[in-house]
Amino acid sequence: MRPGDTAAKAAWMGNPQGGVSAPAAVILPNPATRFRRTADRLDALAAGHPMGEWLAFLSQLSLAQHAAAGSFAPAGANAADIAKADGAGLPPLAADGYPRAPVWRQGLEILLDHVARRSALPDRAAAVIASLRDRAAPEALADDFLRGAVAPEDAGRAMFIAAALQVYFTHLAGGLDVAQVPLLPERGLCPCCGSPPVAGMVTASGSTPGVRYLSCSLCSTAWNHVRAVCITCGRSGRLSLKSIEGTNGAAKAETCDDCHTYAKMFYLGQDPDLDPYADDLASLGLDLMVAAAGWSRHAPNPLLLAR
What pTM, to 2 d.p., does this model score? Predict the structure, then answer.
């Protein structure tokens, strides 16, 4: 089972030497490997891709996230904050309300330094990075991003803010006890931070083949979600899967005619090297095709805000 680069924590049902195991409800991320895996996949996908130059830049951005993830370790989630969230029926790291520690900006600085040093930046991108060196700007932009209220003129800066927040919240989520993270009643939202998923992954091997996991767009947590149910509205009667003709079918759009939304689904049986974050970015053509037919994406990819 490989919904991203994470380690499952599932209990065996029956004989521990074999047989069927219960699928893990929640799979917490490994911040030491999450961003490097995405960077390597983006680098592989960039070769010969129509958007190869853009994917190569995003690979560098993911490498910058990996450098940031390995260079600082924010303090773990506060037990009192977790208890407060639990008492209010909220996820433990509720993105729009969790008291963000100032140390997240350390990760942002490392990320910006890495991108500026490793990438040939156009003048506009260099100016965006320079503007984020102001200590006040990142906090306000982070608040806007986590509330889903980024102004169009701030989209370029928000991409770097989103990348840094992914590192910060992935660190926090990776340090939780999975027992502190029950699935939410609204199953289409991340049980760790309440954010929407970037995509779904359907397993192909291991003890639980054919299980669907959604991958959080912010904290990189994966969680089990029943298949053939719309992740936006929870209905199942008018779902269909669409893919681009001539592809191997590893990437599909699950469309819902009840709420007129769609979500990306990736099938490890067709490609065992899939990464939900990288492959979502590389399959923008599928988004364009489905959007042209009238469906709206369930939630944006944070790194596509500037696209």
Answer: 0.89
